[in-house]
């Protein structure tokens, strides 16, 4: 029982460090197209009774980050005028085939064209992943007959938009990608999902909110650090008295 204060404060240090890491990641991606900010959710650790004769006398054992929630609200749209830029509205995602052969999903619709070994121009993103159509196939970029100009209208119809039964269950896997799992359910192509060409979806990071969270978490982190130091100092006093 003597180290309960120490372990309680230590759990707070660990939890608020994780919360600061989440907030720092949100701020680092403030200019990342289609980025979705995350929010840590805290939960109390187990409570125990100090006096068996009084069940209402309980004390806790600290806090932990129970989960990190993704915030999928529609972000601000920015008009670019570029025919290879797309925004998947609401809870729609673009599907991409990565160089490693994985199918991932993203809200970043800043696309480019790349010529493969057969001389075919295909739609890809900045990481070299191929954008997929509604059938899950790589997109061969259409050109206006007899020209080298991209047929923007035909391309718009080809770019697939996918939705999930529970997008909040998607797993972040880096490079602004999400991966489907049992919690999110399988992706299914949705021709009715809205998309806009020549527009990009901005990051959902709200700098003012994130900076207020930084201040809040830093103060809580410092408070718990001081509690750890105080408990350690008291332990030294007790050990010196015993000696």
Characterization of this structure:
With 243 residues, this protein is α+β, with helices and mostly antiparallel strands. It has two domains: 4-72 and 205-242, no CATH class; 77-201, no CATH class. It is built from three helices and 17 strands. The protein has helices spanning 4-28, 152-158, 207-242, and strands at 38-44, 47-49, 58-60, 63-70, 77-79, 86-88, 94-97, 103-106, 112-115, 121-124, 130-131, 162-163, 171-174, 177-179, 188-189, 195-197, 199-201. The strands form eight sheets. A three-stranded antiparallel sheet has the order 8-7-11, with no helix packed on it. It has a two-stranded antiparallel ribbon with strand order 1-4. Strand 13 (171-174) and strand 14 form a beta hairpin. Helix 1 (4-28) packs antiparallel against helix 3 (207-242). The longest helix is centred in the last third of the chain and has 36 residues, at 207-242.
Strand content: 25-35%
Tell me the number of structural domains: 2
Helix/strand structural class = alpha+beta
Percent of residues in helical segments? 25-40%
Shape designation: elongated
* Radius of gyration of CA atoms, rounded to a whole number: 25 Å
Strand order of the largest sheet: 8-7-11
Largest sheet descriptor:
3 strands, antiparallel
Strand count: 17
Low-confidence stretches: none
Order of helices and strands: HEEEEEEEEEEEHEEEEEEH
How far the N terminus sits from the C terminus, by CA atoms, comes to: 21 Å
What's the average pLDDT?
87
Count of helical regions? 3
Provide keyphrases for this structure.
alpha+beta; 2 domains; 3-stranded antiparallel β-sheet; 28% helix
């Amino acid at each position: 029982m003597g180290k309960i204060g120490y372990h309680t404060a230590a759990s707070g240090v660990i939890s608020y460090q994780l919360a600061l890491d989440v907030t720092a990641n949100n701020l680092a991606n403030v200019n990342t197209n289609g980025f979705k900010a995350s929010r840590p959710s805290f939960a109390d650790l187990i409570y125990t009774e100090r006096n068996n004769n009084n069940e209402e006398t309980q004390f806790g054992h600290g806090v932990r980050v129970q989960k990190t929630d993704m915030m999928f609200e529609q972000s601000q749209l920015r008009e670019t005028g570029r025919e290879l830029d797309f925004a998947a509205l609401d809870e729609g995602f673009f599907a991409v085939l990565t160089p490693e052969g994985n199918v991932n999903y993203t809200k970043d619709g800043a696309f480019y064209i790349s010529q493969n070994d057969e001389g075919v121009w295909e739609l890809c993103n900045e990481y070299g992943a191929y954008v997929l159509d509604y059938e899950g196939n790589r997109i061969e970029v259409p050109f206006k007959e007899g020209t080298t100009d991209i047929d923007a209208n035909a391309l718009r119809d080809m770019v697939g938009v996918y939705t999930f039964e529970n997008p909040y269950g998607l797993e972040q896997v880096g490079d602004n990608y999400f991966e489907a799992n049992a919690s999110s359910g399988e992706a299914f192509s949705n021709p009715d999902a809205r998309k806009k060409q020549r527009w990009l979806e901005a990051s959902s990071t709200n700098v003012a909110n994130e900076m207020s969270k930084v201040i809040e978490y830093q103060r809580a982190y410092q408070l718990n650090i001081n509690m750890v130091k105080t408990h350690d100092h008291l332990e030294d006093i007790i050990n010196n008295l015993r000696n």
